[in-house]
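Treating backbone geometry as a discrete language has practical consequences that deserve illustration. No coordinates are needed to read the tokens, only the vocabulary itself. For completeness, the protein is quoted in full, as a sequence line and a line of structure tokens:
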Amino acid sequence: MTKFSSIAEKNTIQSAFKKLSGAYGKILIVIDKKKTLLGLITIGDLRRAILAGFNLNDKIKKIYKRNVTYVFEDELNKKKLNKSNFTSNSLGDTTFYVPVIDKNKKVKDILPVEKILNILEANNSINNVYKKKLPKILIVGGAGFIGTVLTSKLLEKNYHVTILDKLIYDNKIIKNNFKNKKNFNFIFGDVCDINTQIKAIKDIDIVVYLAEIVGDPACSAKPEDALKTNYLSVLSFANLCSYLAIEKYIYTSSCSVYGLDKNNDLLNENSNLNPVSHYARIKIMSEKALLTSANNYFKPTILRLGTVFGPSKRMRFDLVVNTMSKFAYFKNKIDVYGGTQLRPNIHVDDVADGIISIIKAKKKDVENEIFNLSNDKLNLKIIEIAKKIKKTFKNANLNIIEASPDNRNYKVNSSKIRNKIGFVANKSIESALKEIKNIFKFKKIKNPDNKKYNNFLSLK
């Protein structure tokens, strides 16, 4: 018998939230004093009720579903359903578990839909229509460099994906890459707007927050916008997700919070932070605000990303590896300023896969946690990166310029995410260089100097 939670219709929405505790896919059985099935309620029902104007002290009697899927115990044992309400039409988007009842409608058990199908050994319309349902993902800032890669991977795995983005870099990116894609939804809007936040969060189970003005130059160009987008909207949206008991809130921070480490230590998530830029300082503020906001219903996960490289549907040529590759191919030169600065690096595919590993991980392993997300084999000096690029673009001249406008220096350890959930970043810089070279060679990008490939120039 499966352990299940039940509730009386006189109980409040708040008590229902506590019983479900944000657990994705679970149901709460609504019963009377005789344990007779009255209906059921899901975490999605509770969220929709709050958005519709109900408060936490309202009774669930006002919102629970009366017309629900169920099977009779004796019919299930006989593997023949007649009176049971278990059809392809009765299986809604949030139906994962189904009550098993006796002839008096007393709840005896609840079972996963897959198990019922296995018991029935049914080769019918239910089997054909029902597929194991996955959580619905909202990617805030999903039209960007990381977001478009992540979206593609999630759609390939049959997740329902909604992107919220205001398309400040490329207003055709969605139309050209995701139009008419199955399980995909796009909301054009600014996450800084509360009404847009409420519109986007409906029917969502997991939030991946990527929206930001990225990088030191871009933040310096628009400091007020950076504060609004990178901090205030992060906090307000987190508060909304907390109120609605969103299962997971995944926030991408940056390893630039470590800033300048003069000792060249291998830094972990507990190492001292020493930001040297406006961008990094806002990241630290956001991290602290999110963890301070944590409660029984809201337990965020923070990913500190290394310097990202590689190809994307929304390409960027203002990142170290990608920038050097562009100049190596089109200008036959690789300019290195200083060169001794250390950086952690990670392929954009690995970033997307790392986020997916958090989505799939057990909540207890990732909630209220900070993880470095980088490739431990790619803690490299800038000059070492340049030499790798030189090997791929053999005609390029390597020019070392002693002055360095960027004094960040740090290397990081990503063993925590490996030990907790088994994720390891493994894509090399060499593999990315081959991909980028082919993009240039086959003219997939004809004008890499277009400002849409550069965050700073787009915002300037």
